[in-house]
Design goal:
alpha+beta; two-stranded antiparallel sheet
Length: 150
Amino acid sequence: MTDFDALIPEMSRWNNGAGIDVDGWISGSGNFELAIGYSRVFWPNFVEYEGMVLREGGFTAETVAGWMNHYEGDASNVEAMVNHLHLETLHYYAGSGATRERLVYIGHVLVEIHKVKLAHDFPDRSFEVLFDDSIKEELMDYQFTFFQKR
């Protein structure tokens, strides 16, 4: 069971210190603009490009060509590189508030979501969805990615 009080310490300060649950906190702290933005991360759109499945808006033809050259045509490696996400960058320019515990929680959620979404959108394909939750020296090293098994 997830300890949301540990992940979101602000919740315990609500109601004159009596606290609030995560659903109440979302209701009192969130906004629809953020919810819409987060939908791109937590229920992403994918596009098929040259036989690869990539996050919509996450690449250019030049970037893919460069990685194809670098990985000598290995499409799975290219997918993994183009689709990777450094979790700390989700709020990098907003004073991220990142901690290992928060990034690990989000990383595991992204794995579950992407497995479901990729299976839904591409039922005839098999994907590897990866997140390494081992302890890292730098928070920027917590990365998530996915690629097709070929």
